[in-house]
Amino acid sequence: MPAEGQAMVEIRQLWSVFQTPERRFVVHQDLNLTVRRGEILSIVGGSGSGKTVLLRQILGLETPARGEIRVLGQPVEQIGRHGASSRIGMLFQHGALFSAFTVLENIAFPLRELKTLPSSLVREAAMVKLQMVGLKPEDAYKMPADLSGGMIKRAALARALIMDPPLLLLDEPTAGLDPDSSDGFVALLRSLHRDMELTVVMVSHDLDTLFEVSTRIAVLADKRVIIAASPKDVIAFQHPFIHDFFLGERGQRAMELLREYPFAV
Predict the structure, then answer these.
(1) For FRET with 8, which of 58, 59, 239, 249 sits at 20 to 30 Å CA-CA?
(2) Which residue intervals define the domain ABC transporter in the entry (predicted)?
(3) Where are the alpha helices (DSSP H) in 60-137?
(4) Other Cβ atoms closer than 10 A to 151
């Protein structure tokens, strides 16, 4: 493990290119970004800027056209599927639970895939993670269709943490949640970040979530990261996207949040 503040993820000169019969799309061009151990780095950007693509590339689910991604000092393509799952947890935007599995079976799935642990130990580990994210023991045997949106997010988070990864990726973790559920999930994330010493990379467009948890914000625009800094420094950066995202109709709320969360400066 890198020391506190050293690089957990290093992205260098990344190009992401998608080809259709009609045209060629360049999503990322010479993109560079470093994620340091222990931080919560949030990624913001406009529609089509490749935020989720970047998360999937860090996880090794997609391969960039050019450039390098290193996780814990190792090229991500050399980690392998099981190695990646033990180092990186991923919470997809809509949870991505298996509809035919119970909550407990969903949480246990990554451990069962290893086929090296007794079933009793896998079940015990899954129950620990289920309760760690605020679900009740009786929730273990429910089906995803019987869960609220907030419960789906928590179950998916438990699955992402089942291997105790040092790095957690979150794609719009509070999207679709009501204010109370969103606040509860953010509080849970902050406590897990502290207690498990997690490094977190999060995609979000929600200002309250961004300002409450982010140690740094990375802004995707012009096919690259134009700035990765504290919320206060990001807001002060002169760029049309930053003005529109933070200081347009939501500008007053952004200023209120800066005062409310002094660590964001």
Answers:
(1) 239
(2) 9-247
(3) 81-87, 103-114, 119-132
(4) 20
Neighbours of 171 (CB within 10 A): 20
User: Hunting for tokens 């035919």 — which residue is that?
Assistant: 100
pLDDT tens digits, residue range 11-61?
999 999 988 887 888 999 999 999 999 999 999 999 889 999 999 999 988
Joined tokens for residue 174: 């509070």
Residue of 2, 35, 3 whose CA lies nearest to 169: 35
- Domain positions in the chain are 7-264
Give the β-pairing of 7-19 and 167-171: unpaired
Relative to beta strand 66-71, strand 74-75 is antiparallel
Burial of 93 (0-12, 13-18, 19+ CB in 10 A): middle
Q: Extract the tokens encoding 232.
A: 């206060």
Residue 180 CB-density burial (10 A; 0-12 exposed, 13-18 middle, 19+ buried): exposed
